[in-house]
Automatic annotation (TrEMBL):
Residues 140-347 form the Glutamate/phenylalanine/leucine/valine/L-tryptophan dehydrogenase C-terminal domain. Its EC number is 1.4.1.23. Keywords: Branched-chain amino acid catabolism, NAD, Oxidoreductase. This is Valine dehydrogenase. Homodimer. It comes from the Bacteria. Coiled coil: none annotated. Pathway: Amino-acid degradation; L-valine degradation. The gene is ldh. It comes from Streptomyces cyanogenus.
Length: 348
Protein backbone atom coordinates (compact mmCIF):
# COMPACT_ATOMS: atom_id res chain seq x y z
CA UNK A 1 0.00 0.00 0.00
CA UNK A 2 1.32 3.45 -0.91
CA UNK A 3 0.97 5.43 2.28
CA UNK A 4 3.22 8.43 1.61
CA UNK A 5 1.68 11.84 1.03
CA UNK A 6 4.22 12.85 -1.56
CA UNK A 7 7.43 11.62 -3.13
CA UNK A 8 9.41 13.94 -5.36
CA UNK A 9 12.13 12.47 -7.57
CA UNK A 10 14.05 15.02 -9.56
CA UNK A 11 17.18 15.08 -11.58
CA UNK A 12 19.23 17.88 -10.02
CA UNK A 13 19.52 20.82 -12.43
CA UNK A 14 23.22 21.26 -11.66
CA UNK A 15 24.40 17.82 -10.55
CA UNK A 16 22.10 15.64 -12.70
CA UNK A 17 21.95 13.31 -9.69
CA UNK A 18 18.63 11.90 -8.46
CA UNK A 19 17.22 14.00 -5.59
CA UNK A 20 14.53 12.02 -3.75
CA UNK A 21 12.32 13.73 -1.17
CA UNK A 22 9.79 11.47 0.55
CA UNK A 23 7.13 13.15 2.68
CA UNK A 24 5.47 10.35 4.57
CA UNK A 25 3.00 12.26 6.74
CA UNK A 26 2.17 15.78 7.83
CA UNK A 27 -0.72 14.63 10.04
CA UNK A 28 1.00 15.90 13.19
CA UNK A 29 2.64 18.95 11.59
CA UNK A 30 5.05 19.94 8.81
CA UNK A 31 7.43 17.11 8.00
CA UNK A 32 11.10 16.99 8.97
CA UNK A 33 13.90 14.51 8.38
CA UNK A 34 17.49 14.53 7.33
CA UNK A 35 19.33 14.50 4.02
CA UNK A 36 21.13 11.24 3.33
CA UNK A 37 23.94 11.63 0.82
CA UNK A 38 25.00 8.08 0.23
CA UNK A 39 26.01 5.45 -2.30
CA UNK A 40 23.51 2.97 -3.69
CA UNK A 41 23.91 0.19 -6.27
CA UNK A 42 20.91 1.67 -8.10
CA UNK A 43 19.04 4.98 -7.58
CA UNK A 44 15.86 2.96 -6.99
CA UNK A 45 17.48 1.59 -3.83
CA UNK A 46 17.72 5.23 -2.72
CA UNK A 47 13.96 5.57 -3.26
CA UNK A 48 13.32 2.47 -1.15
CA UNK A 49 15.55 3.89 1.59
CA UNK A 50 13.79 7.28 1.49
CA UNK A 51 10.37 5.60 1.74
CA UNK A 52 11.37 3.56 4.80
CA UNK A 53 13.34 6.30 6.52
CA UNK A 54 10.57 8.89 6.09
CA UNK A 55 7.95 6.52 7.53
CA UNK A 56 10.26 5.95 10.50
CA UNK A 57 10.47 9.74 10.99
CA UNK A 58 6.68 9.93 11.29
CA UNK A 59 6.78 7.26 14.00
CA UNK A 60 9.80 8.94 15.63
CA UNK A 61 7.96 12.23 16.09
CA UNK A 62 4.66 10.58 17.08
CA UNK A 63 6.26 8.47 19.83
CA UNK A 64 8.39 11.40 21.00
CA UNK A 65 5.16 13.40 21.32
CA UNK A 66 6.23 16.21 18.97
CA UNK A 67 3.95 17.99 16.49
CA UNK A 68 6.01 17.27 13.37
CA UNK A 69 5.57 14.91 10.46
CA UNK A 70 7.95 12.47 8.82
CA UNK A 71 10.07 13.00 5.73
CA UNK A 72 13.54 12.24 4.39
CA UNK A 73 15.72 13.21 1.47
CA UNK A 74 18.09 10.83 -0.27
CA UNK A 75 20.58 11.74 -2.95
CA UNK A 76 21.55 8.41 -4.45
CA UNK A 77 25.18 8.50 -5.51
CA UNK A 78 26.34 5.78 -7.89
CA UNK A 79 28.80 3.40 -6.17
CA UNK A 80 32.35 4.75 -6.15
CA UNK A 81 31.34 8.39 -6.72
CA UNK A 82 33.58 10.88 -4.93
CA UNK A 83 32.14 14.40 -4.78
CA UNK A 84 34.69 17.19 -5.06
CA UNK A 85 33.71 20.37 -3.17
CA UNK A 86 32.24 22.02 -6.27
CA UNK A 87 30.07 19.07 -7.15
CA UNK A 88 29.02 18.68 -3.54
CA UNK A 89 27.84 22.30 -3.61
CA UNK A 90 25.87 21.60 -6.79
CA UNK A 91 24.16 18.63 -5.13
CA UNK A 92 23.27 20.60 -2.02
CA UNK A 93 21.87 23.47 -4.08
CA UNK A 94 19.79 21.00 -6.08
CA UNK A 95 18.43 19.59 -2.83
CA UNK A 96 17.71 23.10 -1.54
CA UNK A 97 15.75 23.99 -4.71
CA UNK A 98 13.62 20.88 -4.32
CA UNK A 99 12.91 21.58 -0.65
CA UNK A 100 12.07 25.20 -1.37
CA UNK A 101 9.60 24.07 -4.04
CA UNK A 102 7.68 22.18 -1.36
CA UNK A 103 6.88 25.47 0.34
CA UNK A 104 7.45 24.42 3.96
CA UNK A 105 5.67 21.06 3.84
CA UNK A 106 9.06 19.52 4.61
CA UNK A 107 12.28 20.74 6.23
CA UNK A 108 15.57 18.90 6.02
CA UNK A 109 18.41 18.31 8.44
CA UNK A 110 21.56 16.20 8.70
CA UNK A 111 21.69 12.45 8.17
CA UNK A 112 24.30 9.96 7.03
CA UNK A 113 26.81 11.79 4.82
CA UNK A 114 25.79 15.35 5.76
CA UNK A 115 26.39 17.77 8.63
CA UNK A 116 25.89 21.35 9.83
CA UNK A 117 28.10 22.95 7.13
CA UNK A 118 25.96 21.33 4.44
CA UNK A 119 22.86 22.66 6.18
CA UNK A 120 24.45 26.15 6.12
CA UNK A 121 24.74 25.92 2.33
CA UNK A 122 21.18 24.66 1.93
CA UNK A 123 20.12 27.55 4.17
CA UNK A 124 21.33 30.07 1.58
CA UNK A 125 18.49 28.90 -0.71
CA UNK A 126 15.73 27.76 1.63
CA UNK A 127 14.79 28.52 5.25
CA UNK A 128 13.34 25.01 5.62
CA UNK A 129 16.46 23.51 7.14
CA UNK A 130 17.47 22.46 10.66
CA UNK A 131 20.87 22.15 12.32
CA UNK A 132 22.78 24.97 10.65
CA UNK A 133 25.82 25.97 12.72
CA UNK A 134 24.99 28.05 15.80
CA UNK A 135 26.62 31.22 14.42
CA UNK A 136 24.09 31.14 11.59
CA UNK A 137 21.17 30.76 13.97
CA UNK A 138 20.77 26.99 13.77
CA UNK A 139 20.93 24.39 16.55
CA UNK A 140 24.19 22.91 15.21
CA UNK A 141 25.33 19.32 15.19
CA UNK A 142 22.51 17.02 16.28
CA UNK A 143 24.69 13.94 16.86
CA UNK A 144 25.66 14.63 20.52
CA UNK A 145 21.96 14.90 21.32
CA UNK A 146 21.15 11.68 19.46
CA UNK A 147 23.85 10.03 21.59
CA UNK A 148 22.40 11.56 24.76
CA UNK A 149 18.92 10.29 23.86
CA UNK A 150 20.23 6.79 23.22
CA UNK A 151 21.91 6.87 26.63
CA UNK A 152 18.50 7.69 28.13
CA UNK A 153 16.98 4.68 26.32
CA UNK A 154 19.81 2.49 27.60
CA UNK A 155 19.12 3.61 31.17
CA UNK A 156 15.48 2.56 30.87
CA UNK A 157 16.51 -0.85 29.56
CA UNK A 158 19.17 -1.27 32.22
CA UNK A 159 16.65 -0.49 34.96
CA UNK A 160 14.26 -3.07 33.49
CA UNK A 161 16.83 -5.84 33.15
CA UNK A 162 19.21 -5.16 36.01
CA UNK A 163 17.25 -2.99 38.45
CA UNK A 164 19.51 0.05 38.01
CA UNK A 165 19.76 2.84 35.45
CA UNK A 166 23.51 3.01 36.06
CA UNK A 167 25.68 1.59 33.32
CA UNK A 168 29.01 1.29 35.13
CA UNK A 169 30.39 -2.21 34.76
CA UNK A 170 27.73 -3.08 32.19
CA UNK A 171 29.14 -4.77 29.08
CA UNK A 172 28.09 -3.01 25.89
CA UNK A 173 29.04 -3.56 22.24
CA UNK A 174 28.91 -0.38 20.15
CA UNK A 175 28.61 -1.23 16.45
CA UNK A 176 29.86 1.76 14.46
CA UNK A 177 31.98 4.71 15.57
CA UNK A 178 30.62 7.48 13.35
CA UNK A 179 29.61 10.81 14.87
CA UNK A 180 26.80 9.36 16.98
CA UNK A 181 28.42 6.01 17.79
CA UNK A 182 31.72 7.57 18.89
CA UNK A 183 29.91 10.19 20.99
CA UNK A 184 27.82 7.52 22.65
CA UNK A 185 30.88 5.32 23.28
CA UNK A 186 32.52 8.31 25.00
CA UNK A 187 29.48 8.87 27.22
CA UNK A 188 29.39 5.17 28.11
CA UNK A 189 33.12 4.99 28.82
CA UNK A 190 32.85 8.06 31.07
CA UNK A 191 30.19 6.20 33.02
CA UNK A 192 32.43 3.18 33.48
CA UNK A 193 30.81 0.76 31.04
CA UNK A 194 32.97 -2.09 29.68
CA UNK A 195 33.01 -1.48 25.93
CA UNK A 196 33.56 -3.64 22.90
CA UNK A 197 33.56 -1.58 19.70
CA UNK A 198 33.90 -1.90 15.96
CA UNK A 199 33.75 0.04 12.71
CA UNK A 200 34.25 -0.87 9.07
CA UNK A 201 36.92 1.86 8.99
CA UNK A 202 40.03 0.42 10.71
CA UNK A 203 41.23 3.98 11.50
CA UNK A 204 38.44 4.19 14.09
CA UNK A 205 40.39 1.71 16.20
CA UNK A 206 42.16 4.75 17.68
CA UNK A 207 38.91 5.87 19.27
CA UNK A 208 38.43 2.44 20.81
CA UNK A 209 41.98 2.48 22.20
CA UNK A 210 41.46 5.94 23.64
CA UNK A 211 38.39 4.69 25.51
CA UNK A 212 40.01 1.47 26.73
CA UNK A 213 37.55 -0.54 24.63
CA UNK A 214 38.08 -4.02 23.20
CA UNK A 215 38.17 -3.92 19.39
CA UNK A 216 36.21 -6.61 17.57
CA UNK A 217 35.74 -7.22 13.84
CA UNK A 218 32.45 -5.96 12.35
CA UNK A 219 31.31 -9.46 11.43
CA UNK A 220 31.90 -10.87 14.91
CA UNK A 221 30.63 -8.12 17.18
CA UNK A 222 26.95 -9.11 17.07
CA UNK A 223 27.90 -12.46 18.60
CA UNK A 224 29.99 -10.83 21.36
CA UNK A 225 29.40 -11.96 24.94
CA UNK A 226 27.94 -8.66 26.21
CA UNK A 227 24.83 -7.43 28.04
CA UNK A 228 23.60 -4.96 25.41
CA UNK A 229 24.36 -4.55 21.71
CA UNK A 230 24.18 -0.94 20.48
CA UNK A 231 23.74 -0.65 16.67
CA UNK A 232 25.15 2.70 15.57
CA UNK A 233 26.08 2.01 11.95
CA UNK A 234 24.12 1.84 8.70
CA UNK A 235 20.85 -0.06 8.83
CA UNK A 236 19.49 -3.58 8.50
CA UNK A 237 22.02 -5.26 10.80
CA UNK A 238 19.29 -7.41 12.40
CA UNK A 239 18.34 -10.37 10.22
CA UNK A 240 17.12 -13.90 11.00
CA UNK A 241 20.75 -14.95 10.67
CA UNK A 242 22.31 -12.32 12.97
CA UNK A 243 19.56 -12.57 15.59
CA UNK A 244 20.32 -16.29 15.93
CA UNK A 245 23.93 -15.36 16.81
CA UNK A 246 23.18 -12.75 19.48
CA UNK A 247 24.26 -13.53 23.04
CA UNK A 248 23.09 -10.29 24.64
CA UNK A 249 19.91 -9.53 26.60
CA UNK A 250 19.01 -6.36 24.73
CA UNK A 251 19.60 -4.45 21.50
CA UNK A 252 19.25 -0.68 21.82
CA UNK A 253 20.94 1.80 19.52
CA UNK A 254 20.69 4.97 17.44
CA UNK A 255 21.05 3.45 13.93
CA UNK A 256 17.98 3.97 11.76
CA UNK A 257 16.30 0.97 10.09
CA UNK A 258 17.99 -1.76 12.16
CA UNK A 259 15.55 -4.52 11.18
CA UNK A 260 16.03 -6.11 7.75
CA UNK A 261 12.28 -6.87 7.81
CA UNK A 262 9.64 -6.02 10.46
CA UNK A 263 9.19 -9.68 11.53
CA UNK A 264 12.75 -9.70 12.93
CA UNK A 265 11.29 -7.87 15.97
CA UNK A 266 9.28 -11.03 16.71
CA UNK A 267 12.38 -13.21 16.35
CA UNK A 268 14.17 -11.04 18.92
CA UNK A 269 11.19 -11.29 21.25
CA UNK A 270 11.04 -15.07 20.91
CA UNK A 271 14.72 -15.28 21.84
CA UNK A 272 13.96 -13.21 24.95
CA UNK A 273 16.06 -10.29 23.69
CA UNK A 274 14.66 -6.88 24.41
CA UNK A 275 14.70 -4.61 21.34
CA UNK A 276 13.89 -0.94 21.64
CA UNK A 277 12.71 0.35 18.24
CA UNK A 278 15.44 2.41 16.57
CA UNK A 279 13.11 5.33 15.96
CA UNK A 280 12.51 5.60 19.71
CA UNK A 281 16.16 5.31 20.81
CA UNK A 282 17.43 7.67 18.10
CA UNK A 283 15.00 10.55 18.63
CA UNK A 284 17.38 12.78 20.66
CA UNK A 285 18.77 14.60 17.60
CA UNK A 286 15.43 15.66 16.14
CA UNK A 287 13.97 16.33 19.56
CA UNK A 288 16.85 18.74 20.19
CA UNK A 289 16.64 20.42 16.76
CA UNK A 290 12.87 20.85 16.69
CA UNK A 291 12.56 21.89 20.35
CA UNK A 292 15.29 24.50 19.90
CA UNK A 293 14.53 25.87 16.45
CA UNK A 294 10.74 25.52 16.20
CA UNK A 295 9.59 25.60 19.80
CA UNK A 296 12.29 27.99 21.04
CA UNK A 297 12.77 26.13 24.32
CA UNK A 298 15.65 27.01 26.64
CA UNK A 299 18.62 24.59 26.62
CA UNK A 300 17.69 22.96 29.94
CA UNK A 301 14.12 22.37 28.74
CA UNK A 302 15.44 20.88 25.52
CA UNK A 303 17.78 18.62 27.48
CA UNK A 304 14.84 17.51 29.65
CA UNK A 305 12.93 16.52 26.49
CA UNK A 306 15.89 14.48 25.24
CA UNK A 307 16.30 12.80 28.64
CA UNK A 308 12.55 12.06 28.68
CA UNK A 309 13.28 9.30 26.14
CA UNK A 310 14.05 7.25 29.27
CA UNK A 311 10.43 7.61 30.44
CA UNK A 312 9.10 6.96 26.94
CA UNK A 313 11.03 3.69 26.76
CA UNK A 314 9.96 2.70 30.28
CA UNK A 315 6.33 3.34 29.29
CA UNK A 316 6.67 1.22 26.14
CA UNK A 317 8.29 -1.64 28.08
CA UNK A 318 5.49 -1.47 30.67
CA UNK A 319 2.80 -1.52 27.99
CA UNK A 320 4.50 -4.34 26.13
CA UNK A 321 4.73 -6.41 29.29
CA UNK A 322 1.20 -5.79 30.53
CA UNK A 323 -0.43 -6.42 27.13
CA UNK A 324 1.77 -9.32 26.05
CA UNK A 325 3.21 -7.35 23.13
CA UNK A 326 6.72 -6.69 21.86
CA UNK A 327 8.14 -3.20 22.50
CA UNK A 328 7.97 -2.76 18.70
CA UNK A 329 4.23 -3.43 18.69
CA UNK A 330 3.71 -1.15 21.70
CA UNK A 331 5.57 1.66 19.90
CA UNK A 332 3.63 1.14 16.64
CA UNK A 333 0.35 1.23 18.53
CA UNK A 334 1.32 4.41 20.39
CA UNK A 335 2.34 6.09 17.11
CA UNK A 336 -0.91 5.01 15.40
CA UNK A 337 -2.99 6.27 18.29
CA UNK A 338 -1.31 9.68 18.21
CA UNK A 339 -1.66 9.89 14.42
CA UNK A 340 -5.33 8.85 14.51
CA UNK A 341 -6.06 11.54 17.08
CA UNK A 342 -5.41 14.23 14.44
CA UNK A 343 -7.74 15.37 11.67
CA UNK A 344 -5.42 14.70 8.73
CA UNK A 345 -2.54 16.34 6.87
CA UNK A 346 -1.49 19.74 8.20
CA UNK A 347 -3.48 22.55 6.61
CA UNK A 348 -6.48 20.41 5.59
C1 LIG B 1 16.87 11.53 12.09
O1 LIG B 1 16.68 11.66 13.29
O2 LIG B 1 16.79 10.41 11.56
C2 LIG B 1 17.14 12.69 11.24
O3 LIG B 1 16.70 12.69 10.14
C3 LIG B 1 17.98 13.81 11.77
C4 LIG B 1 17.36 15.16 11.80
C5 LIG B 1 17.83 16.03 12.72
C6 LIG B 1 17.27 17.28 12.80
C7 LIG B 1 16.25 17.67 11.97
C8 LIG B 1 15.80 16.80 11.04
C9 LIG B 1 16.36 15.54 10.96
Amino acid sequence: MFEHEQVVIRSGRRSRLPVIVAVHSTALGPAAGGLRLWHYPDWRDGVTDALRLSAAMTAKFAVAGLPSGGGKTVVALPEGTVLDPERRRDVLQDVADTIESLGGTYSTGPDVGTGPEDMALIGTITSHVFCRPAHLGGSGDSSPHTAQGTLAALRAVSRRLYGTARLDGRRLAVVGLGRVGAGLARLLAAEGAALTVTDTDPDKRKIGDELGAVWCSPDEILAADVDIVVPAALGSCLTAHTVAQLRCRAVVGPANNQLATPDVADLLHRRGILWVPDYVASAGGVVHAVSTELHHLAPDEVRARVDAIEHTVTGLLDTAESRGRTPAQAATELARRRLRATAGPAGT
